[in-house]
Amino acid sequence: MTTVTSVQKLLSFADRGPVAKSYRRYLGRASLTMFALILVSAYLLPLLYMVTTAFQQPGQASTPGSPVYPASPLTGIYQGEEYPIYAVPIDGTTRNLMLVEKGREVSTFVDPADASATPIVWQGRWRTLVQAWTFAPEIKNFTTAWSQLNFPRLLFNTAAISVLSTLAALISSALVAYGFARFRFPGKNVLFIILIATIILPFQVTLLPTYVIFTRLGWTGTWLPLIVPHLFANAYNVFLLRQYFMSIPRDLDEAAMIDGASPFRILRSVILPLSVPAIVAVTLFHFFFAWNDFFIPLLYLAAKPELQPLSIAIQQYNALYSTQPTLIQAASLMTMAVPVVVFFLAQRAFMRGVVITGVEK
Amino acid sequence: MIQDEMGPFNEIIDTTRAGAVRTTRIGGPRWYATPTGREAIWGVVFIGPWLIGLVLLTAGPMIASLILSFTNFDLVNPGAVRFIGLDNYERMASDPNVIKSLIVTFRFAIIAIPLTMVASLGFALMLNSAKLLGRNIFRTLVYMPMQIPLVASTLVWIGFLNPETGWLNHMLGFLGLPGPDWLNSEAWVYPALSLIGLWGIGNFMLINLAGLQSVPTELYEAARIDGAGAGTMFRRITIPLMSPILLYNLVISLVVTFQYFTQAYTITNGRGDPDNATLFINLDLYREAFVFNHMGYAAAIAWLLFVIVMILTLCLFAFARRRVYYAGGEG
Amino acid sequence: MHADRSAPKALLALVGVVAIVAGACGATASTPSPSVAAPSEAPSVAAVTPAPSLAAITPAPLPPNAPGPNGGVVVSWFVGLGAGAQPQQLQAEATFVDAFNASQKDVYISLEIYNNNVAASILKTQIAAGNAPDIIGPVGVEGLNLFRDQLLDLAPLIASTGYSVPGVDPKLVDFFKLGENNATVGVPFATYPSFMYFNKDLFDEAGLPYPPTKVGDLYQGKPWDMDAVRKLAMQLTVDKNGNDATSASFDPANVVQWGFDMQYADNSPLAETALFGASSFLASDGKSAQIPEQVSIGEKWYNDGVWKDHFIPSANQINSDLLDKGNEFESGNLAMNESHSWFTCCIYPAAPAKPKIKQFGFAIAPSYNGVITAKLHADTFSLLKSTKVPDAAFKALTALVGSSELLTLYGAFPANPAQQDAFFKATEANFPGVKLDWSVPQAMLAFPDVPNHQSWVPNYAKAKSAWQAFQNKYRTTAGVDIDAELAKLKTTLQGIFDEVNP
């Protein structure tokens, strides 16, 4: 609620008053952008946590007092072994020394600059000392996940499954939505309610019968169960497109009709061009859904690792007793790369600000 | 007063009132005012793909689950299945878990649905404003949480909300506020799940963004000339013209909230901890089906859920008949 | 399209109609139609992409009775109920299967690997759909409980093939009589004795002697028992200022190192309290729920350890960064961990990470009232009753059980003593510079928990959920009245048992 009203206030503030209009406009832009920056930063803090984890050395976070950013401890070499460096207060000054032997009340330090000097025995608790860290993003998390999971192969599978199922969903949903939005036929309202009903029943109870059908068809071990159902449209997409199509005034259909256009042609050259934002929205979220879907692909593709998408592979790092957060997050970031770029590019659809809907007057 | 400000747009506003839409629809000429039989055939042709899918893939499993709800079907002992009439439904009436889970689900829905609607519209308005610099980047950023694989986002939230080392409580501590035990206290688990739910509004935001594109800017300009304020324009132009999209978001958020499962499952140990405070109805039926193997009983719970959501959805549609404005008529 | 006799009758009847229509669908869907554009998509993609994608959209799986690529009977092997789904393991399992399939022409193993989170749900779906795999495993006692009435009795196959594992204690063969009517549902494969893992670095820092490695040895002149563990663990629990938990200035809100836990005990009170003696929630009449004294005493010990003495981490602390979000011992901030031999999996993080522990060792499980109880895990492979090819599946099963590569892969202590030395060497290769005392796990095999902490109870899955919720409650909440909660648990469990024992 606060968001809406604040935005509205900003909008009205920026637009009112004839004096110093350009100044006000500038101020309006700056303050809205600033507001958005703060809001979005807060919203994305967990994402920053994710990115940080992906670049951390596994185990950095479990060191008490470690910094939040990806870092590795500063170390020195003493007798062929690596030791961490701490800031040690000695005789009124603070020296950076390697901690070579830990003790509860007495510890032994060595000067990293002069490892041959006599070790310094320091009275005090090493846990109260400040450890030295250096910023060090761990790229190996990404390279390890890339090679261990056979990323290129899986990326191809994921893209292929997503593109095919998105095409199927998009084409079928547009046709069905057009049917519901523009034509009168007996039982239409009931059919529409049935359409909605198909998504109201939780999938947990239709999973088993659906699985029976696909196994009887011999489709396990193929991509068919992931693609074919989308040929028949789904209620989420159809409902959305129908709502959007119904917002388009009929005058345009009529004009095309008078020119002798068939319903297919009207869909293609009148309805769809005016519905680009909704079509893009449906495309995007179906694509992203298919990209990250995990359970259904696993159910049907477990015996065919060479056909699996990335979502299944990432789960390997979440195996029983061996969760590897750094690798999960690194692999997830790489998995997200394509969807994020796709989204960024697809936004042109929302950038036009207006669609000429030909509202009368 | 506001009416006067709006000047020439009275007509559009009026169409949002009861009756006006109907008038438009009946009054306007239809390009296919040709024989209705032909129109009906075209309609059926277009919805054909869905009808085929319904018959082949969707209706069967739905009916099967309904029939299963009258049996004692056990997942790992399928051979012993037999019909038990209405036993599952009778059992449900006295099952404390089902009752508890209904309360939990309704309580969550009351928080989650308005939150989703408002936050997604607010974000969409902000991200649609021409005054926002770097809109492309902001939109991409706000949508990004939707693209994170589930296994990753679950870990992110568990880590982020951890009372010992999580960022959120560290920041609260920095501000001098006490950090709650987000996921283990009955009082805080709802705010925590709502917070996590906010991360899932990307699709609703995107749909709103698409809806905002359908509002012609000429309307705003003309209203502005008439001296309408931003608030007025929002209420009188944006909301009515976006009403079909808002209806969609409302229905879908109702459906997905009552099916709320994945986060509840992954974040609350798959049991609805603490003390069943997060035993959502869908989690309860999942546990009955796949943990305790009572698929028949789970199917009965699923159909109870189905009836509840169906009734609520029909109410929404009935409500919408008067409130939602379709520029193309109601077909 | 023919009805499968092993499939659930009702479901099949329901879906039969749909399936028949679906048969027609094959034709319908591929008929070029103006409204459905996607089928034409498929061939074009297949043309530009290499072979696997062609396979991906070609519905040509092996019909159940067709021979596999090597000409043998197809046997499907389901991995995921326990170990086996980590990236390194997948490779090794696939290599084993490839080698086995190439080595003979009678049996063809088809490997299916599922993530542990969803493996049980998927297996249940497959069983209910009449599409169950032939072999499941590696799977422990608990996993077998969950599928108890679907497991094939191996005794006839063992008898008819004369199968035996040389050198294995016959008691261990009997251990797997876990099925209905004492059916033998597995053959000895892997055992996982439990003992105390300890972080030598932390003992050195505190200047404390290491715990005993021989049964009967004292620790600092006193018996190595639960009380000694408590005192020692408190000395090994440290706050950020370096105070240990025995100190008056110890700050329980800022602990950075803990003394003891039983990591990965699956929220099971019976597992946690096995150190106090083996017990069961099911009374000897096979019907009544009970709270054994060991559980009551033990859980109070743990509860005090978390909230009063602070040497055991709470649930939030376990999930925090300080304890590596659950892998407490690996973080280097837990001094002692009572766990099984499979825990060698999880002491070092997977590459490319560097280990956080320099030196660690094995010690004897502590005693309670003079008795040592070192709970035992055992893994096996099982056949499902629904298998249509029991002979071929049993042949594949014996190959799996006989593979020393798989044993090492799963960190499994070989049931066959002749294989143990090779296992020790292979395991130690993962820990360069660390010398491990294998006499500890060997000694602990003599003190198994009988009854096993995972023993079957009626309505197992539901009962488990109830006792896990109890354990989670005291680990997340300070000030829980253990006696009151256990009394509630008893009532709940009785209700759960009664559901299936009218």
Secondary-structure map:
The complex is a heterotrimer of chains A (361), B (331) and C (502).
Chain A: H1 2-15, H2 21-43, H3 45-55, E1 71-73, E2 75-78, E3 81-90, E4 93-101, E5 106-110, E6 120-123, E7 130-131, E8 133-135, H4 140-148, H5 151-182, H6 188-200, H7 203-216, H8 224-227, H9 235-246, H10 251-258, H11 263-274, H12 276-292, H13 295-301, H14 310-315, E9 318-319, E10 322-323, H15 325-346
Antiparallel strand pairs in A: 1-8, 2-3, 3-4, 3-7, 4-5, 5-6, 9-10
Helix pairs in contact in A: 1-2, 3-15, 4-15, 5-9, 5-12, 9-12, 10-11, 12-15
Chain B: H1 2-6, H2 10-15, H3 20-27, H4 36-68, H5 87-93, H6 96-128, H7 135-143, H8 150-161, H9 167-174, H10 189-198, H11 202-213, H12 217-225, H13 230-258, H14 262-267, H15 281-291, H16 295-323
Helix pairs in contact in B: 6-10, 6-11, 6-13, 6-15, 11-13, 13-16, 15-16
Chain C: H1 9-30, H2 38-48, H3 51-57, E1 73-79, H4 87-103, E2 107-113, H5 116-128, E3 135-139, H6 141-146, H7 155-161, H8 170-175, E4 190-192, E5 194-199, H9 200-206, E6 218-219, E7 222-223, H10 226-235, E8 238-239, E9 255-261, H11 269-272, H12 293-307, H13 315-318, E10 334-340, E11 360-363, E12 367-368, E13 371-372, E14 377-383, H14 390-401, H15 404-409, E15 413-414, H16 420-428, H17 439-444, H18 460-476, H19 482-500
Parallel strand pairs in C: 1-2, 1-3, 9-10
Antiparallel strand pairs in C: 3-14, 4-14, 4-15, 5-10, 5-11, 6-7, 8-9, 12-13
Helix pairs in contact in C: 2-3, 18-19
Which terms would index this structure?
heterotrimer; A: 361 residues; alpha+beta; 10 strands; 12% strand; B: 331 residues; mainly alpha; 16 helices; 0% strand
Describe this structure as you would to a colleague.
Chain A is α+β, with helices and mostly antiparallel strands. Chain A is built from 15 helices and 10 strands. Residues 1-7, 9-14 and 353-361 of chain A have low confidence and may be disordered. Chain B is mostly helical and 331 residues long. In chain B, 51% of the residues are buried. Chain C has 502 residues and is of the alpha+beta class. Chain C contains 19 helices and 15 strands. Chain C has helices spanning 9-30, 38-48, 51-57, 87-103, 116-128, 141-146, 155-161, 170-175, 200-206, 226-235, 269-272, 293-307, 315-318, 390-401, 404-409, 420-428, 439-444, 460-476, 482-500, and strands at 73-79, 107-113, 135-139, 190-192, 194-199, 218-219, 222-223, 238-239, 255-261, 334-340, 360-363, 367-368, 371-372, 377-383, 413-414. Classes of the chains: A alpha+beta (361), B mainly alpha (331), C alpha+beta (502). Chains in contact: A-B, A-C, B-C. The interface between A and B is large, with 125 and 127 residues.
